[in-house]
Amino acid sequence: MDSMNADTAEMREQLIEEVLAAYPDKSRKKRQKHLAVAQPAPADDPAIASKCDGVKSNIKSLPGVMTIRGCAYAGSKGVVWGPVKDMVHISHGPVGCGQYSWSQRRNYYTGTTGVDSFVTMQITTDFQEKDIVFGGDKKLDKVIDEIAELFPLAKGISVQSECPIGLIGDDIEAVSRKKAKEIGKTIVPVRCEGFRGVSQSLGHHIANDSIRDWVLEKEGTATGPQPGPYDINIVGDYNIGGDAWASRRLLEEMGLRVVGNWSGDATLAEMERAPKAKLNLIHCYRSMNYICRYMEEKYGIPWMEYNFFGPSQIAASLRAVAQKFDETIQENAEKVIAKYQPLVDAVLAKYRPRLEGKSVMLYVGGLRPRHVVTAYDDLGMVIAGTGYEFAHADDYKRTGEFIKEGTLIYDDVTGYELEKFVEKIRPDLVGSGIKEKYPVQKMGIPFRQMHSWDYSGPYHGYDGFAIFARDMDLAINNPVWDLFSAPWGEKAA
Amino acid sequence: MPQSAEKVLDHAKLFQEPEYVEMFERKRAEFENAPPAPMVKEIGDWTKSWEYREKNLGREALCINPAKACQPLGAVFAGAGYEGSLSFVHGSQGCVAYYRSHLARHFKEPSSAVSSSMTEDAAVFGGLNNMIDGLANAYALYSPKMIAVSTTCMAEVIGDDLNSFILQAKEKGSVPQDFAVPYAHTPAFVGSHIDGYDNMQKGILETFWKDAKRVPGEGINIIPGFDGFAVGNIRELKRMLALMGVETTILSDVSDVYDTPSDGEFRMYAGGTSLDEVKGALNAKATVSMQEYCSRKTLEFCEEHGQATASFHYPLGVRATDEFLMAMTDLTGTTIPDSLKLERGRLVDALADSQSYLHGKTYAIFGDPDFVYAMARFLLETGGEPRHCLATNGGKAWEKQMRELLASSPFGKDCQVWAGKDLWALRSIMATEPVDLLIGNSHGKYLERDLGTPLIRLAFPIFDRHHHHRFPTWGYQGAINVLVKILDKIFDRLDAESGAPGQDISFDLTR
């Protein structure tokens, strides 16, 4: 560790202490465990650049602190199930959950909305008081009939439970079984009530389990092309701004056949067919590792993580994926990397000089706080801090592969903490969500939404990297940041 | 290769490149088990038929694309409009993340609120500890001047008692005994965001007026109601009332809350009705609501305290503004200044200048009940013909008021009122009985795409256009803003439809 890093690390330790001072005692002790500075990597572990798993994670948020987290429903309907395009996803309960999450994750898809695809629709049982008092099963029963009648091309239905469902004792599994027989389609009940677990994360897990129990374990449903030697599934890519498409292109170019895309632009058939693939490629480990592990156990399909943010990781990932196949594929991977090298060079030549040395603080969900780090590295940018809304210990361990010691780490950061950290560190860019965007920008610090790509994207793949570089440049180098101070200063006031 | 560093293509153009188009087609053909294109076309056409409309409007349980949100959103919005006030929602935490996102996406502003983060254990044992710790943490970290508590449906289903919880939290020292913690039960399975707004407003007045003796004065309280244009509208309202010399207290003034400057400082609290003003509001002569359906309980509460009350339907347009101003003169004995009369004349002048483009245009309108009423009323003044008026959160009383309004003008005779219906129903309605223009919020863009009817965004939420909320829609000047938005849409459409190359017909330079 050089001396500047040591200073920085010490200053950051001190900053953590300062920020914690605002809390009542009991809460301070709890929050303390979630904030840390990345430590030097142990000498016996060359795979990691720093030790980041010193923080506690996946623990209940404190009441009243302004956690940025969402809930299990958000993890299931919003993340895992919502993008499956040819199914109707019922937000089962009161109107709000479905209303606020309506079309907000930018899961792009092809298809005709309302006819054969349904992602950008808000479909709800709109619970009223009587449904709470007398139970909602009858309503759900009727709602499924009405969906079957109005959307004949829908391939299936999922029932995304909102908080009341688990509290009033409804039996959505029984209703789903009965109705699936009646309408002859897949119906998936999902127990993703918002009060379950501590964040979106349990919702991902529950959604994965429901895919296992209600889709994969169903007999004889997978139809379609004959399995081939190069069949793979892309798992945990939600096609935000078209990410999965920019990824798919590269995999197809190297000769692989992407038989399923989970769950951005996905169809039920692709999910059903998944167990016949040769390899599962997982991008968002946090939200879909469960189903990969299951498929490995049950069908013997290996899975591997990959990272399509930024050219260094894209190339490394393409090579690692190719290693799982024959020489032809390996040669193709090299061809693909070579083909895109001029684009990479041109993007770096244009944008790196404009971004070199700029510092970044990240606070995102369960994957990007580590996965996008090397894309910033490629542009010469430096990560000052990073943290996750809903990571687990294994995510923090993996984070050490990507970030340097001395980086500030914050788990389930509170509004107060993030504001203070940003204020003190004053990075050149913050990447986080819509709730964080405007407070940060008011401070005069450039910001990009890193959940929704700030309505841009894709950011995956080589095509996406060009957009990523452009967006970071336009955020940081826009002239608006120079206009914040009135020229007459304080004197004239 | 479609991408280049010189001209970076993002999603808007990238996916129209042949490499991607071919890939989409291949994916669909090989892997999606998609229905054949003719079948998609057939079903698509069928969804726009009268036959489908009957099934669609006959739905008894299923709700598709509703134009309403849940109570706590309104409570958070109402709570935000007071000085140093922090909204605290008791229940699951994901809800609060949603309210904050929803408001931030509309106003393009910070939206602060906290949750008591209840989980499974709280579902079993109740959320008392979450309230105790939550109030303590929020008070310590965010130094609010008051904390406005509402509830998610989780807390309502398990029956948490806010009053008792807050008292116990105070006893435990979470916040000082005399610290204001108004509260409202806001079950998401009753009513909508406009009821949550009402309940929170009532809760706030209950807290600040409790045990105080009313000394009737001359002041007027005004409740703006839940309004996506609140920033522009509340400022316009204050400006008009200042011109009249009327002393008013805005109850929940969010105009500065959702419009803070960029000067290097993040203001978590900005503006808002001062707590002294809320206390003083008890002595007001009257409380006036700009939106009846956002304030029914609150006005009842004001009446119980001896105040006169009056309510309006989102005063927009000539006569609605006339009525509002005259009601204010009746209440206060002031007169309407010539400057406002001049503004009125300018609005009428604008309407007269453009009447040939407005007369006979047909409209579908959706949104909150008061907004839809206001919009219909203004369109009738322009010679426009509302044909479909829809409020998912409108009930029988609203429907009756709408019918009376429509019966008052020959331009309203062909209009149908759709209380409780959603936007998927409106799709069928507009597909079978088309109109020239659609007025509503951003969710209407799917109707615009499916049916080709141009959408004018005048209601909350507006996510996909920026800054409209900064301009008022109320009053005479607000009506000019609305008028210009409608006319721009009409003229843009006219140009788009007449601009075909190879001819020069109807593409007029002067209109």
TrEMBL record, chain A:
EC class name: oxidoreductase
Keywords carried by this UniProt record: ATP-binding, Iron, Iron-sulfur, Metal-binding, Molybdenum, Nitrogen fixation, Nucleotide-binding, Oxidoreductase
Cofactors that this protein relies on: [8Fe-7S] cluster; [7Fe-Mo-9S-C-homocitryl] cluster
One GO MF term: ATP binding
Domain Nitrogenase/oxidoreductase component: 71-474
Keyword Glycoprotein on entry: no
Catalysed reaction, written as an equation: N2 + 8 reduced [2Fe-2S]-[ferredoxin] + 16 ATP + 16 H2O = H2 + 8 oxidized [2Fe-2S]-[ferredoxin] + 2 NH4(+) + 16 ADP + 16 phosphate + 6 H(+)
Gene Ontology cellular-component annotations: molybdenum-iron nitrogenase complex
Keyword Repressor annotated: no
EC number: 1.18.6.1
Classification via PANTHER family: NITROGENASE MOLYBDENUM-IRON PROTEIN ALPHA CHAIN (PTHR43457:SF1)
Known role: This molybdenum-iron protein is part of the nitrogenase complex that catalyzes the key enzymatic reactions in nitrogen fixation.
Family per similarity comment: Belongs to the NifD/NifK/NifE/NifN family.
Quaternary assembly: Tetramer of two alpha and two beta chains. Forms complex with the iron protein (nitrogenase component 2).
Protein name, entry field: Nitrogenase protein alpha chain
Organism of this sequence: Consotaella salsifontis
Automatic annotation (TrEMBL), chain B:
InterPro entries, sorted: ChlB/BchB/BchZ, Nase/OxRdtase_comp1, Nase_comp1_CS, Nase_Mo-Fe_CF_bsu, Nase_Mo-Fe_CF_bsu_N
Names of the cofactor(s): [8Fe-7S] cluster
Cofactor details (free text): Binds 1 [8Fe-7S] cluster per heterodimer.
GO cellular component: molybdenum-iron nitrogenase complex
A molecular-function term among this protein's GO annotations: metal ion binding
Domain Nitrogenase molybdenum-iron protein beta chain N-terminal stretches: 1-56
Keywords, sorted A to Z: ATP-binding, Iron, Iron-sulfur, Metal-binding, Nitrogen fixation, Nucleotide-binding, Oxidoreductase
Enzyme Commission numbers on file: 1.18.6.1
Stored SUPFAM superfamilies: Helical backbone' metal receptor
Catalytic activity: N2 + 8 reduced [2Fe-2S]-[ferredoxin] + 16 ATP + 16 H2O = H2 + 8 oxidized [2Fe-2S]-[ferredoxin] + 2 NH4(+) + 16 ADP + 16 phosphate + 6 H(+)
Superkingdom of source: Bacteria
Pfam family, one: Oxidored_nitro
Segments forming domain Nitrogenase/oxidoreductase component: 70-488
Gene3D superfamilies: Nitrogenase molybdenum iron protein domain (3.40.50.1980), Nitrogenase Molybdenum-iron Protein, subunit B, domain 4 (1.20.89.10)
Quaternary data: Tetramer of two alpha and two beta chains. Forms complex with the iron protein (nitrogenase component 2).
Family note: Belongs to the NifD/NifK/NifE/NifN family.
Function of the protein: This molybdenum-iron protein is part of the nitrogenase complex that catalyzes the key enzymatic reactions in nitrogen fixation.
Name used for this protein in its record: Nitrogenase molybdenum-iron protein beta chain
Source organism: Consotaella salsifontis
Lineage, top ranks: Bacteria, Pseudomonadati, Pseudomonadota, Alphaproteobacteria, Hyphomicrobiales
